[in-house]
């Protein structure tokens, strides 16, 4: 039928585009991409980069990390390197360097990645930066099939993708991690959660669960960005997920490294429980700083390049320079990657005290679909790094 995909795809990545369509990139032996809905007849568009990043016998190019850059082109990362793709003209407009060390970050050497929060949205040139964390050293998958489980990667790599001459900057995580999830929190910090300390993705190939979530603060000085948190008791291995909730918690579920559901006599039984990780901003000691959005109501419509007024309540003393509004696109999470995840910092143009702990805050909405494709977003007021409960808005 015309509604189906033009090609069969196993482990491909989707992203919503500024025109409202989705692009679907790659998949096993599919070195191409296509659009849904289709603009013309069942068409796929060749992307040789995916073929170039395919390690023979092992792959390491599946579930590529795809992010919409602020110029409307797509940053596509597979294996250990990336390109900037003009998908309209089917042309690679930039090639990024290989991550130093050259170790793979894509399935089955599964790391994860985020587009860091987009800020200063009124500037003529907006900077975009990507952070890639974890993965497995070259050869890990083949070794794991032989019963040898190599330690996971302990490095993250960060790159300003809008730079004319971009370079990767390497950082060291407190804990090595393969199959870890990376979740953007409402205050712009990044949560690393789930995964294993050795082995690789794929059936039965992970070992040494990493039980401690780690928080990453992108604006801190390098060397002070990571913070290790209280461990869970539940291993979250292959086929685990994580998703941001409206109240600022992160929902965690899954783990099934088996072909079928298997609950007994295996190293990591199929896990049906759900947990919520509560970032430190939910501690009761911050209740006085925590904003409450009074208006608009959830499910309000907003449009591009307009002034938006929020009414909020904060019980404690308000530091006006430390109040800002963020909007987060809901992601689709599978296999350690949250597709379409992005966070925009709308900032704060003007705060007016209304009395009785209430304030109006004015912000400007994003100017174009290159910054924020139309659709639903979670909107938060953040005060001194403490987010409110989110409201849903529909950007159109």
TrEMBL record:
Galactose oxidase-like Early set domain span: 290-394
Segments forming domain Glyoxal oxidase N-terminal: 3-281
Q: Which SUPFAM superfamilies match?
A: E set domains, Galactose oxidase, central domain
Which of UniProt's keywords are assigned here? Signal
Judging by the UniProt lineage, the source's domain of life is Eukaryota
Q: Which InterPro entries match?
A: Gal_Oxase/kelch_b-propeller, Gal_Oxidase_central_sf, Glyoxal_oxidase_N, GO-like_E_set, Ig-like_fold, Ig_E-set
Task: Please give the PANTHER family that the UniProt record associates with this protein.
Answer: OXIDASE, PUTATIVE, EXPRESSED-RELATED, SECRETED PROTEIN-RELATED
What is the protein's name according to its record?
A: Galactose oxidase-like Early set domain-containing protein
What lineage does the source organism belong to? Eukaryota, Viridiplantae, Streptophyta, Embryophyta, Tracheophyta
């Amino acid at each position: 039928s015309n509604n189906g995909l033009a090609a069969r795809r196993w482990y491909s990545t989707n992203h919503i585009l500024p025109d409202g369509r989705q692009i679907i990139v790659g998949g096993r032996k599919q070195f191409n991409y296509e659009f849904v809905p289709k603009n013309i007849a069942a068409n796929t568009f060749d992307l040789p980069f995916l073929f170039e990043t395919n390690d023979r016998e092992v792959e390491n190019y599946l579930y590529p990390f795809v992010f919409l850059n602020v110029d409307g082109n797509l940053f596509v990362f597979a294996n250990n390197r990336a390109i900037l793709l003009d998908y309209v003209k089917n042309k690679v407009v930039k090639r990024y360097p290989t991550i130093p060390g050259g170790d793979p970050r894509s399935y089955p050497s599964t790391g994860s990645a985020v587009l860091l929060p987009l800020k200063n949205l009124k500037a003529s040139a907006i900077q975009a930066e990507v952070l890639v964390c974890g993965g497995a050293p070259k050869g890990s998958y083949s070794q794991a099939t032989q019963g040898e489980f190599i330690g996971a990667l302990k490095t993250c790599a960060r790159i300003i993708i809008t730079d004319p001459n971009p370079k990767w900057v390497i950082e060291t995580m407190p804990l090595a991690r393969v199959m870890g999830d990376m979740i953007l929190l409402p205050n712009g910090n990044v949560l690393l959660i789930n995964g294993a300390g050795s082995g690789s993705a794929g059936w039965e190939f992970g070992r040494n669960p990493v039980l401690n979530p780690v928080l990453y603060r992108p604006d801190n000085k390098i060397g002070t960005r990571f913070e290790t948190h209280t461990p869970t008791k539940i291993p979250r291995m292959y086929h685990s997920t994580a998703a941001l909730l409206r109240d600022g918690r992160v929902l965690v579920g899954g783990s099934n490294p088996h072909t079928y559901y298997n609950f007994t006599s295996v190293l990591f039984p199929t896990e049906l429980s759900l947990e919520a990780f509560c970032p430190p901003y939910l501690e009761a000691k911050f209740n006085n700083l925590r904003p409450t959005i009074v208006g608009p109501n959830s499910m309000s419509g907003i449009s591009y390049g307009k002034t938006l007024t929020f009414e909020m309540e904060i019980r404690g003393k308000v530091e006006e320079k430390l109040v800002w509004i963020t909007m987060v696109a809901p992601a689709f999470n599978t296999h350690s990657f949250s597709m379409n995840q992005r966070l925009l910092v709308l900032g704060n143009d003007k705060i007016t005290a209304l009395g009785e702990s209430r304030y109006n805050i004015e912000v400007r909405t994003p100017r174009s679909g290159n910054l924020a494709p139309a659709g639903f977003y979670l909107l938060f007021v953040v005060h001194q790094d403490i987010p409110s409960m989110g409201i849903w808005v529909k950007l159109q």
